[in-house]
Structures are given as structure tokens and as C-alpha cells.
Amino acid sequence: MWITAFTGLSMVSLLEKMRFDLYASVMGITGLGLAWRFAAQCFQWPQVIGETCIFIALSIFIMLNALNLARLLMAPQLIRSEWMDHDRFNFFPTFTISGSLLSIGVLPYSNFAALVIWWPTVLLQVLFITLAVRRWLTTKIILQNVSPAWLIPMVGNASPCFAGVPLGYGTFSYALLMSAIVCWMLFTPIILGKLIISKPETEPHIVPSIAILISAPAVISVGLYNYPDTANVLMQLLSYAALFFAAVTISMFRHFRIKQFSRALWAFTFPAAALSSSLLRIYHQTPDPYNLYQAWIALGLATTIVVLVSVSAVKCLVMDSAISLSGKKSLNRSSILR
């Protein structure tokens, strides 16, 4: 109950505000931690930054799991409603992706802990993407329902190989990775077609959504790095595709006017972290000055984004809890759970 005491919210109110897209915070912080861990290995830097990020992300992951378990037991209709929503059900795999990332995060400390996190999340990921594709094939889809969030389940199929290879499940993970590549190749043209036809630049919320286009090729590229026999050209193609989408997203920032904190801001964190991890691996494969500078810039940008969003989230949480505990109502105030 310390969560409700800190936030000043009742348990019922807190559960009503919970959604699976909050796991994007775990993805972003864990992704940054893994990027810093790899950078420390490449450049012999101290490992404290990466390991601290992973520990923080693991703590948030455990807290969100507890809250979602409470939702399942106390208000299952909330999860059912979220699953039936055309947009929100795409965010269920943020839980499985978080688990895949954290399994490689804890692997250096405990092989058993990595397995305990990896197997359930991978099996759920297979279930999620199967049900997602089945829904797309069997449900009448209108243009407005097509979204970059469709790529989230596909990213989930690429992430298990991070820990799967060192854990000894390389072949199974490779099969999932190849399916992620096929899905990315098939669905990206559909998503881009929708974005171009519907002229989304007039919609302020579209920029965080477009950021998801960065993460899919970046995560697949990092996944391919785990298989040395895979063509280096394919990994570079995906990394630079992610870099291209990052440039497009940055160019659209004038359409995203940030007036208050929103959970949508977390959508920028994981794509930035995934891109930095991908470019760091490009440098590791081909160590030249250009690859070095772009890897450093990407890591610095990812760190800045995650820190700014995290600080904004903490400030918003503290302000909301102070207002709630004082008994005052907040009008038009941002919320950590909004």
C-alpha cells in the first residue's frame, strides 16, 4: 500500500489509471542501461551508469507487475477492456519486451533469475503476437485503426534473442527473430501508407507514435548482432533505417507541443536507446571515426531523453501526490498516469 500512500490515490483510482503502456518506461530505462553496459565494454568506461539504470528499471517492473496483478484480481474488466481496444491492445507486448530486456540485464548476476524472467515473457510474447496477427486478419480494419503501435508485437519477437542466445536457446530465438523481420517488412509499408495518406502531421499525438518506427529496425539489428554468421550488411541496413526514421521524427518535433507531462513521452525513450545500442554495435563491427561519433551522439541523445522524461515523471508524481494529500483538486494538471 506504500504506492497509494505516496501518490495520494486510492487503490481503485490507481488501478483505473493503470495501462500496459506504462511498461514503456521500463523498456526505455532498461534499454539505456543495456546501451551503457555495451558502451562500457567497448570503451572501458565505468559500468555504474548502465547497472544503475537496469536496477531502477527492474524495480519499476516489479511494481508494475504487482499493480497489474491487483488489476487482474480486483478489476479484471479493466484489463479486458484494454485488450478489446483497437489501439491499446498493441501495448500488451511492452510487458514481454521489458521482460526480455531485463532477462539479459540480470544475466550477469544470476542465470536462474534470467531464466525465471525470460521463459514466461517469451511464451506470453508468442501468444500476444499470434493473437494480434489473428485479430488483424479476422477483424475488419479501417484506416484509422492502422498505427505504428502495430510494430510493438513485432519488436517483441526480436528481443528474446538478447538473453536467449547466451542462455542456450539460440535456435528458438533465431526463429522468433526471423519472424520479426518478415513482419516488419510486411507491415511497415502498410503503416507508412496510412501515415502518408491520413496526413498525421496535423495530429499532435502522432510524433510519439512515429518514434516506434525507429525501434523495430534498431532492435532487429541488435538481435542480428547475436548471430555472427548473419550478413553484416543486413544489420547495417536496419541500423541506418532506424537512423533515418529518427531523423524524420526529430524533424516533426514542431508538431508535438509539450505543454505538460504525458505518458506518451515514454514512447521516445526506448527507440532512442535501441538506436544507440544498434549504432554502438555498428561501431564495434567497423571501428572507424564516423561510426564512433554517431554512436556517441546517439548514446548522448538517448541519455538526455531518458533523463528528461524520467525527471519530468518524478516531478509530476511528487506534485500530484502533494496535491492529493492536501485535499485540493488539480485543474488541467499533468499526471504521471495520464
TrEMBL record:
Gene Ontology MF, one: monoatomic cation efflux transmembrane transporter activity
Highest taxon in the source lineage: Bacteria
Presence of keyword Transcription regulation: no
Gene Ontology CC: plasma membrane
Subcellular location: Membrane
Transmembrane intervals: 20-39, 45-70, 91-110, 116-137, 149-169, 175-197, 209-227, 233-253, 265-283, 295-318
Membrane topology qualifier: Multi-pass membrane protein
UniProt xrefs under InterPro entries: SLAC1/Mae1/Ssu1/TehA (IPR004695), Tellurite_res_ion_channel (IPR052951), Voltage-dep_anion_channel_sf (IPR038665)
Keywords: Membrane, Transmembrane, Transmembrane helix
Name the UniProt record assigns to this protein: Tellurite resistance protein
